[in-house]
Design brief:
Structural class: alpha+beta
Bound molecules: adenosine-5'-triphosphate, magnesium ion
CATH topology of the largest domain: ABC transporter transmembrane region fold
Strand content: 5-15%
Helix content: 55-70%
CATH architecture of the largest domain: Up-down Bundle
Radius of gyration: 37 Å
Strand order of the largest sheet: 1-6-2-3-4-5
Number of strands: 18
Number of helices: 26
Distance between the termini: 80 Å
CATH superfamily of the largest domain: ABC transporter type 1, transmembrane domain
Number of domains: 4
């Protein structure tokens, strides 16, 4: 009897403990899910990595929430800090026992907070807790989460205003830059005043003591000016680098969010050229614009000073500056039009370069070099011509401005001298020289401002080019929106119509079919019959179709795109391998995957054997475009990459078409294994690789002709039978020679 108790008790206790852990964990996950739902995000528990028998760390929870597209941080807080929170959305308190509570409101006046048990019914009111009670269950671990702040900024269209805003965000640094500039412009007054003193006082009265004093001033000013110059340049390049980083990050992020069909419609060369215009914008902002603005700061001091020194001459200087402005504004239009023409020709030129580089294999093997060079020559000639015209146009205002500048800087002296002679005693020689020195400094920023108008045209064109790419509607307006269901793998098309933009006929015409979860669907049909289009719709590449595509009964358009694509594997006819090792290419940066997973995936894809024969195995380096791999090897790596994360749905579009029979046989032999436990959609021209499919869908000119297993189709679908006969005539004749009837064909014929 007594021996029974120690036997049963620990077991029950252990079971109870396990239950307690999972129940606590359940409460924790429910709390986080509820908080995420508050921000309209459905988290997917599949994406949370829970260690065996344990509970996920707060860090893992943070990653989970962030993957869902929310801002999240785990922090340690005190009760007093909780009281200070502005609880505009739920805050999660991670309790010591592994569960969680949701903080809904705080009441600093009464020193209590209101919390809810995530397991409680949604109608239940929160309960009030004071510091003492909370400290018994809570050690301070808190999860803060909210909607990603950057989202609105991400969606902001790229405009001059937006760029300006990025500069304004550096206002603290900018203020310091401006203070430095202001101080420097004060120092600029010292040399002219010194010259004036030397000429008018020291030389006239031969005063050595004044000279000593002036020299001391001079020395101090020199030191200050050096330091301030250093500070100004340093702050300028810091601001420049930060603004630059922000713009570049934004542009790339936006670029990645564009839908695939945009990239298919646009030449890569054009996109690259336009995106690179960002550099021009940044250079202008942080280079010329900033330095001119800083120089202009000194006008605040210098203009009053020249008016104090000699009002008549000051007016002359200002009028000349106005004339410079008039000349430049008059030329703005023609110059900007000429630059626009040149810029367009540059776009055309760079697209030839990129196209040639992408297609260099074809260019070389078909000996197309002369033709490509010819196109390049012509485009270059046009571009050079337009560049000359643009420079010529821009040369005019510069030329006309030069004499005005000269007069502003030096000519005023002559006028001053004239005044001095006409009205004796009105102007001392020292003052005249000092005025000349200062008015030179006034002229510089004034002319700079006028010239900036000209550069601004160029920048406006650059902004326009960048806009034409990244202000396209993104694939999904809010990347965090949409359902994040757990996929089983049922696919349903219901009366789907689709016409490509600009297309005349429907690529898909009333397509309806259903694929149960875990089965294999083969897609066959003549070239252009719409097979790839079906798989594109399924991946959410094109979303403006009519009818419904459903995944496990959910409308595809309501599912979060990246969540969905993460659960898919896709292999196309041509697959791009990135620079990196074999292992890196198979894992493709997915979090939490290791070499073991890569080996498992490679085995599944039939790639294991050749990888192990490579000099460094999984660490073998692959160059961009993978020239050191055969087509079949590349394809098998691509398949391994597609299945490593165990996708619920695997799409193979002509994945084996480019393979030699041996590699194809290898992959085909693995198809059933590849398809185990997931839905597969296989497009193939070779019907022999589809005979194992549960269903084969026959497409013809965008319509579904028939759908059935192979044996049935051979019997009842004439198009399928024809294709099958075309490809397998040798079987028939071999069978005939051997005197054996091939039953399927005999029945079908
Ligand atoms: N990006 C596109 N823009 C415009 N029309 C397209 C585009 N892609 C395909 N089409 C058209 O849509 C139709 C179906 O094309 P789809 O690529 O689905 O055919 P497919 O059955 O996959 O052919 P194949 O066996 O040659 O790969 C074709 O008539 C084609 O001309
Ligand atoms: Mg296709």
């Amino acid at each position: 009897m007594t021996s029974d108790i120690p036997e049963t008790d620990p077991k029950e206790a252990a079971a109870a403990e396990r239950n307690a852990i999972s129940e606590a964990l359940e409460s924790r996950l429910m709390a986080i899910e509820a908080a995420a739902r508050f921000h309209h995000v459905e988290l997917d528990r599949d994406e949370l990595r829970i260690p065996k028998g344990g509970a996920p760390s707060p860090a893992a929870l943070v990653v989970w929430v962030r993957d869902g597209g929310l801002w999240c941080r785990a922090v340690r807080m005190r009760f007093s800090q909780l009281l200070k929170l502005e609880v505009s959305s739920p805050v999660i308190l991670l309790l010591r026992d592994g569960s969680a509570a949701i903080l809904t409101t705080v009441d600093p006046a009464r020193n209590i907070i209101w919390v809810k048990d995530p397991r409680a019914a949604s109608g239940d009111p929160p309960v009030a807790v004071d510091e003492l009670r909370l400290s018994q269950v809570w050690g301070g671990e808190t999860l803060l989460l909210r909607a990603e702040r950057e989202v609105t900024d991400d969606n902001a269209p790229f405009t001059v205003g937006w760029v300006g805003q990025q500069v304004r965000r550096e206002s603290v640094l900018m203020r310091e830059v401006f203070i430095a500039a202001f101080a420097m412009s004060l120092l600029q007054l010292i040399p002219p005043i010194m010259v004036m003193t030397v000429l008018d006082r020291i030389l006239t009265y031969q005063s050595l003591s004044t000279l000593a004093l002036v020299s001391m001033f001079f020395g101090m000013a020199l030191i200050y000016e050096t330091i301030l110059g250093y500070v100004r340049r340093k702050l300028t390049y810091i601001v420049g680098a930060r603004v630059d980083a922000r713009i570049t990050l934004h542009v790339f992020k936006r670029l990645l969010r564009l839908p695939l069909d945009y990239f298919e419609r646009q030449q890569a060369g054009v996109i690259i050229y336009r995106i690179n215009q960002v550099n021009k914008i940044r250079e202008f902002l942080t280079g010329k614009l900033l330095s001119t603005m800083l120089d202009s700061v000194s006008l605040i001091i210098l203009i009053p000073v020249i008016f104090i020194l000699e009002p008549t001459l000051a007016w002359v200087t200002l009028v000349l500056a106005g004339l410079v402005g008039v000349v430049i504004v008059a030329f703005l239009g023609p110059v900007s039009r000429a630059i626009g023409r040149w810029s367009a020709s540059e776009t055309a030129k760079s697209s030839v370069l990129v196209e040639t580089l992408y297609g260099i294999r074809t260019v070389k093997s078909l000996a197309l070099e002369p033709q490509q060079r010819d196109i390049w020559d012509r485009r270059t000639a046009t571009s050079v011509q337009l560049k000359l015209e643009a420079s010529e146009m821009a040369n005019w205002p510069q030329t006309l401005v030069t004499p005005l500048e000269g007069v502003m800087g030096r000519g005023v002296v002559l006028f001053g001298a004239f005044l001095a002679i006409e009205v004796p005693g009105s102007i001392d020689p020292g003052l005249l020289i000092a005025f000349m020195m200062i008015s030179g400094r006034v002229a510089q920023p004034l002319i700079g401002i006028a010239k900036i108008m000209e550069d601004l045209q160029e920048v406006r064109i650059a902004v326009g080019l960048v806009q034409s790419v990244i202000n396209q509607p993104p694939e999904s307006v809010n990347p965090n929106a949409g359902l994040r269901p757990r996929f089983e793998g049922t696919v349903e098309y219901n009366k789907v119509n689709y016409t490509y933009p600009g297309g005349k006929t429907r690529a898909l015409d009333g397509v309806s079919f259903e694929v149960p979860a875990g089965t294999m669907l083969g897609l066959v049909g003549r070239s252009g019959s719409g097979k790839s289009t079906i798989t594109r719709l399924l991946q959410g590449i094109t979303r403006d179709y009519e009818g419904f595509v459903k995944l496990d009964g959910n409308d595809l358009r309501e599912i979060n795109l990246s969540h969905m694509r993460r659960a898919f594997g896709v292999v196309l006819q041509e697959n791009f391998l990135f620079r990196g090792t074999v292992r890196e290419n198979i894992i493709a940066g997915r979090p939490g995957l290791t070499l073991t997973d890569a080996v498992r995936a490679a085995r599944l894809a039939g790639a294991e054997e050749f990888i192990e024969r490579m000099p460094n195995g999984y660490e073998t380096w692959i160059e961009e475009g993978s020239p050191n791999l055969s087509g079949g090897q590349r394809q098998r790596l691509a398949i391994a990459r597609a299945v490593i994360h165990d996708p619920r749905l695997l799409i193979l579009d002509e994945a084996t078409s480019a393979l030699d029979p041996e590699s194809e046989a290898l992959v085909n032999a693995n198809l059933t294994r590849l398809g185990k436990g997931r839905t597969m959609v296989i497009v193939s021209h070779r019907l022999t690789s589809l005979t194992d499919c549960d269903q084969i869908l026959v497409m013809d000119r965008g319509k579904v002709l028939d759908m059935a297993p192979h044996l049935v189709l051979v019997e009842r679908c004439s198009v399928y039978r024809q294709l099958w006969l075309q490809q397998n005539r040798h079987l028939e004749s071999a069978a005939a020679r051997a005197g054996v009837a091939v039953p399927v064909l005999a029945q079908g014929a």
